[in-house]
Amino acid sequence: MKKYTICIIGGGSRYTPDMLTMLCNQKERFPLAKIVFYDNEAERQELVGKYAEILFNEYYPGVEVVYTTDPEEAYTGIDFALMQIRAGRLKMRASDEKIAIKHGCLGQETCGAGGFAYGMRSVPAVIDIIKDIRKYAPEAWILNYSNPAAIVAQATEKVFPEDHRIINICDMPIAIMDMYANVLGKKRKDFEPRYFGLNHFGWFTNIYDVKTGHDYLPELRNILKTPKEFKTEKLFEEPSWKATFDFMSTMISDYDEYLPNTYMQYYLYPQKMFKKQDINHTRADEVMEGNEKEVYETLEAVVKLGKIKGTAYEPEPDAGCHAEYIVDLATALANNSNEIFLIITKNNGTCSNLDPDMMVEVPCRVGTYGVEAISVGEVPTFYKGLIENQHAYEKLTAEAALEGDYMKALKALVLNRAVVNTDVAKALLDDYIEANKGYWTELK
Ligand SMILES: NC(=O)c1ccc[n+]([C@@H]2O[C@H](COP(=O)([O-])OP(=O)(O)OC[C@H]3O[C@@H](n4cnc5c(N)ncnc54)[C@H](O)[C@@H]3O)[C@@H](O)[C@H]2O)c1
Ligand SMILES: O=P(O)(O)OC[C@H]1O[C@H](O[C@H]2[C@H](O)[C@@H](O)[C@@H](O)O[C@@H]2CO)[C@H](O)[C@@H](O)[C@@H]1O
Ligand SMILES: [Mn+2]
């Protein structure tokens, strides 16, 4: 069986260690010859690289481990690029969230004004990386997690319309499916979802049992009308994530069909979500003080010890759905498994009454041929209206980032359901332009 060469871009990501555990667990289905880590911060990259050398030496001997800040060394000869950069790092996420709150808007990573600022930063960074990858690895599959995935996907489709080996994904729907499975006493892979929308802006329409075809969605709606305890990822025990999953019951009770992505809370209840926020301590602060600190302390401890086996740092067998999803996707592309994944892909009639150029998040069959969307059909009026407005926002944001067009940036913000007011949008832009010097394309 072929052994693959992969590059993790944004190798310093706090998600990388779990991804490495997943790759060790998946070595039979997705064997590696070489793993390269690429980051634009050498120090961060070196720490993760040294951790990886220890991990692979103990759990996956024979795999060549390389870490670098040089694109040519990173991308030459790779089969897969797994991309998870955070342009500006968590400190700029905090800036995105706090400036939004300062102007009376929802301060969130990928939604509302915060997501707009993040998108304006991510687009130039991701496009430049993909151009570099294509210089040295014209045929590599590029699997992108870098957020805000909806806006990044709009931009990659606009700049590389013929490049069908760029695949944008999100792990939120499967994290939600993990929760459904836990509540039903099953496993996520017992289900096959039917879903439509944009990234972080969608709805489950069916949750089919893979074996019997039974649709669990009606009973899940009934069960989840009241918040349920569930055990999936440690991260979701954190208060802000628990509140997010608990709020699902309000959305299910208020609306008469489907099961919403958790992110719909920000767009259907922006005022309620805004009132929960503290400008002095946002989610970015929680992550910096929590998960990021924890992950990096572990990396430092392992590198200091020089070993993992027999220490308190032996990786959890279950690497979590973030790591599982992207490695499963790479495996499906490599092995032509024809499994179903939720992918952000060009609509092209999948949702028959939505713009064919939209980057919709829908179930796709995946094999060596790439991704093939499963038909959704007509999207009902309420959802069509919401999605078309959100798509216009995302499209204008991507174009503003690519073209440096101030007016498109302003119109995008005014279209966003969590902003709306022109005077607020202009004040947000003034602050974001100042805070993002060196990251955003200059707006004219
Ligand atoms: N799609 C999804 O559902 C999903 C799920 C989780 C996380 N994410 C995204 O994954 C990304 C990583 O998240 P994180 O919390 O690990 O961030 P992080 O800051 O811990 O790691 C990101 C890494 O990217 C590096 N980086 C930034 N800009 C770069 C560039 N231009 N070139 C190369 N490297 C660069 C940083 O130095 C850092 O090491 C974020 O965009 C996050 O939003 C997406
Ligand atoms: O606020 P954060 O940084 O904790 O989360 C923001 C991200 O949330 C989603 O990703 C989840 C993922 O769904 C879950 O499986 C697990 O891996 O945790 C992730 C969060 O860390 C969302 O899909 C991402 O786009 C967000 O960046
Ligand atoms: Mn996501």
Automatic annotation (TrEMBL):
It comes from the Bacteria. SUPFAM superfamilies: LDH C-terminal domain-like, NAD(P)-binding Rossmann-fold domains. This is Maltose-6-phosphate glucosidase. Belongs to the glycosyl hydrolase 4 family. Residues 195-419 form the Glycosyl hydrolase family 4 C-terminal domain. Keywords: Cobalt, Glycosidase, Hydrolase, Iron, Manganese, Metal-binding, NAD, Nickel. Mn(2+) binds at C170, H200. Its cofactor is NAD(+). GO terms for biological process: carbohydrate metabolic process. The keyword NAD applies. Pfam families: Glyco_hydro_4 (PF02056), Glyco_hydro_4C (PF11975). The keyword NAD applies. One of its GO terms (molecular function) is oxidoreductase activity, acting on the CH-OH group of donors, NAD or NADP as acceptor. Substrate binds at R93, N147, R283. InterPro entries: GlycHydrolase_4_CS (IPR019802), Glyco_hydro_4 (IPR001088), Glyco_hydro_4_C (IPR022616), Lactate_DH/Glyco_Ohase_4_C (IPR015955), NAD(P)-bd_dom_sf (IPR036291). The record marks E109 as: Increases basicity of active site Tyr. It comes from Breznakia blatticola. Binds 1 NAD(+) per subunit. The active site is at D171, Y263.
